[in-house]
Amino acid sequence: MLEERNSETRRPARAQGELPSSHVLVVDDEHSIRHFVQCALTDAGYHVTMAANGEEALSRFKSEVPDLVVLDVKLPDADGLDLLAQMKQESPDTPVILITAVADVKKAVEAMKRGAFYFLRKPLALDELEGLVREGLEKRRLKLEVDVLRQKVWQEEGVVRCLSPRMAQVYQIVEQVARGENTSVLIEGESGTGKEHIARNIHKLSMRSTKPFLEINCAAIPRDLLESELFGHEKGAFTDARAQKQGLLELAHGGTLFLDEVGEMSLTLQVKLLRVLERMTFKRVGGVKDISVSVRIISATNQNLEKRVREGGFREDLFYRLKVVPIYVPPLRERREDILPLALHFMQQFNIAFKKDFMRITPEAERTLLEYPWPGNIRELRNLMERMILLETGTELNVGHLQLGSGGGTRGAHGSSGNDLADRISDVLVAPGLPSGGIPCEGILEELERALITKASEASNGNQSRTAELLQMKRDKLRYRMKLYRMNGGHGADDDGVEQTGT
Predict the structure, then answer these.
(1) Please, what is the average pLDDT of the chain?
(2) Residue 502 reports pLDDT greater than 70
(3) Res. 5 pLDDT band, cuts 50 70 90
(4) Conformational region of residue 234, where left means phi above 0, alpha means psi within -120 to 50, and beta covers everything else
(5) N or C terminus: which one in the chain shows less Cβ crowding within 10 Å?
(6) Helix, coil or strand: residue 445
(7) Between the CA of residue 272 and those of 250, 265, 275, 399, what are the distances in Å?
(8) Residues 6 or more apart from 298 whose CB is under 8 A from it?
(9) For residue 250, what are the β-bridge partners?
(10) Counting Cβ atoms within 10 Å, is residue 416 exposed (0-12), middle (13-18) or buried (19+)?
(11) What pLDDT, in 10s, does the model give residues 43-89?
(12) Range with the poorest average pLDDT among 110-119, 393-402, 436-445
């Protein structure tokens, strides 16, 4: 049943580069086959254990999971295909080479469906078997390396792996789509759910990871300037175009361009973006020369783009070009299993940043965190933990420390009352110096902007133009701020007669 090699061809040592600890389990009811396979693989530098039946094989497999299994299909007490399924359930990454004395195409197909690495017919050619063992172990090694690198990417981003099944599906899609070098991705979800984080990790896990990752918020830049930012411009293309400028598409060549809030893009610019996606060429503003690039486009939106398409505000053909792979990031209120792990993660993160010693969150505070609806999602949770760790003292966070919205039943809407915010700002300004750990400037400024916009909106009865005048800012900037903070736009008619309801 074995095709033996001449003694001169047998290697005295393992294959170059092979790990010395590679463990191979050989399962066959024929002693002669077990013996010769063991001798050949031991000479090749592997640690070999053997089993003569299914029961013994499963026992050895579970006690010390091998790096690879050579498994006979027909055993006295078990079917090799059933054993294969059990082994794959126990350790999906362990390659299994099935061997059989009978040529059976159906069984071979079934074996591959159940995850067999290879289906080999007796009599065994030891050279062929050794080659398959090396190949199987190399594939396993590469898979483990990729898993380690992927885990490192998530850790470097500073975000804990969430526990909810819905986020597990998101992570799985991210890892799969990263393998497609040019595939366009549309990330949908509410503000604060981590859409940019998802985009960055698609880039980091892809073959483009060594090239640029550039991003632009389409809602934050005036529409007449967005085209120049994306495509660049030639000298003299318009007023103030005093020199040639490369756009983000050029600068991102070889890498990834992330278009946040892509739904805010004008219809004219949508046409030009569609041409880029179709041809990967474009012209600078005021230019006549075609520029070719290789860029993966990842876009994100907190709007319902399908509704925008139906209403005529977004091109249908561009929508489907952007949404080759859709990823929906669920809001935090729909994956409550993730709230406490994220809170603890942020607690540890800010402990280090602010040199604090918080160790735990009290059960009452945990219940409050779990019951709160989190309209600002992960961003709101992170800001909350930053404020608490900075401003409080001790080793545990209790319910008295929480400053949640009205749904949390704590100190006031949107994190604090106006008076509390004023008191905290005053405390910082009149203090002789800043705390050693610094202050949560971004969180305080966000609260201050929220409070000022709310006050001006109430004074103008919700009229956005008047609100913008009171705040001495452009209406586009006001609308962006309100959208960013997910504030209701009021119910008063704007100066164009259109009722403003916000987003």
Answers:
(1) 81
(2) no
(3) very low
(4) beta
(5) N
(6) helix
(7) 15, 11, 5, 52
(8) 184, 185, 186, 187, 199, 202, 203, 256, 257, 258, 259
(9) none
(10) buried
(11) 888 999 999 999 999 999 988 889 999 999 889 998 889 999 999 88
(12) 436-445
Residues across the chain: 503
Read off the pLDDT of each residue in 312-322 and give the average, rounded to a whole number.
94
Pick 220 or 241 by higher pLDDT.
220
Q: For residue 276, give the H/E element and its range.
A: helix 267-279
Q: Are strands 245-246 and 256-260 parallel, antiparallel or unpaired?
A: unpaired
What tens digit of pLDDT does each residue of 479-500 get?
888 877 777 653 333 443 333 3
Please give the single-letter amino acid code of residue 266.
Answer: S
State residue 25's pLDDT score. 95
Residue 143 one-letter amino acid? K
SS3 145: helix
pLDDT of 416 strictly over 50: no
Which long-range contacts (C-beta less than 8 Å, at least 24 apart) are formed by 56-62?
57/25, 57/27, 57/83, 58/83, 58/86, 58/87, 60/25, 61/25, 61/87, 61/90, 61/91, 62/90
Q: Which two tokens stand for residue 498?
A: 């259109």
- Residue 322 reports pLDDT greater than 90: yes
Q: Are 40 and 48 in contact (CB under 8 A)?
A: no
**What CA–CA distance (Å, rounded) separates 72 from 99?**
5
Q: Which of 38, 35, 31 is nearest to 53 (CA)?
A: 31
CB-neighbour burial class of residue 211 (10 A; exposed 0-12, middle 13-18, buried 19+): middle
Q: Which pair of tokens denotes residue 188?
A: 């949908």
Q: What amino acid occupies position 293?
A: V
- pTM for this structure? 0.55
Structural contact between residues 399 and 431, judged by C-beta atoms closer than 8 angstroms: no
**In angstroms, rounded to a whole number, what is the distance separating the alpha carbons of residues 117 and 101?**
18
What does the longest C-alpha to C-alpha distance in the chain come to? 96
Q: Is the pLDDT of residue 437 over 60?
A: no
Q: Any bridge partners for residue 423, and if so which?
A: none
